Amino acid sequence: MWARHSPSESQVFGRRAPLRRLLRQIRRLRISSSVHHPRELIAIPQQSSDEMAANAEAHGSNRKFRDLLLDVEIMFDLLLKMDDIERAMLALPDDAKMPLFNRRVSVSKQLYQRLNLEKADRLQQLLQVKKGRELLTKSLHQLKKEFARSAVDLMLNRSSLLTRCRSEDLSWAELHKAVHRIVTASDSEKLGELFQCLLMQNAANPAPFFKNKFLVSIMGSILHTMWHQASHSKGNDKHWKSVLSKLVAFVESVDCSSLAASYSPIPNVLVLCERFLDRPVFLRVEKHLRTLFTQE
Hints:
- It contains 15 helices and no strands.
- The protein has helices at residues 9-13, 17-28, 49-90, 98-115, 122-127, 130-142, 145-157, 159-162, 170-183, 188-202, 206-210, 213-231, 237-251, 268-276, 279-293.
- By secondary structure, it is mainly α.
- α9 runs parallel beside α12 (213-231).
């Protein structure tokens, strides 16, 4: 018959090293306190008022960021609804499409209202997030034309704020393609307004504008469309000279080394400027224009 032996501590805790270490730590605890000198159980560091304000501000900004991302997801759902409506329209004869067309216009209006680009800092918030830029790109393709044009107008009216954004990411280039499509559909009067808007928004400090690839590319789109219209119209030379003279003053105030190139070459800008600017004036800014629009 086997004799029973009481297990030793090493046998009980041999395979429980963490528990054994915990017991050793407990034995080392000093329990020394009295009524007049109680032992401190939890050390809570005291925060200054500045630190508390900074933490509250950080918490508030995190909450705003979460709310923004949630809003972006809701707007993507509206885009998906518009896609579903378009697919459904393709399966119907022309005389039966009107109810779905009206529904699509209604969803487009909801999307534009949800974008809320009239709000001062809304556009900047959306553009600072990659998913927000992707949302704007898809929205410009899907929105009703009048809403898309209005969105581009608001974007250019806030262009001085966009100079703070880094624009090297591919999503910026895709957004520019969507803006380019709307710009190239504008008439000469509207082009002049867009161009004047860019100049006025950034005249006080043009250097940040020319360091931003997105804004430089938009200017290139406007000038490219001007070239196209000038090539197919005659007798409007005075107008184009007036517009381009403002460009010269805007460009030559910035050093060439500080200029960002457009996302893709737009050589027609040089053709336009060479045609309508006086030769000495064109030579003064030729290097700037090549850096900006031909990637040379």
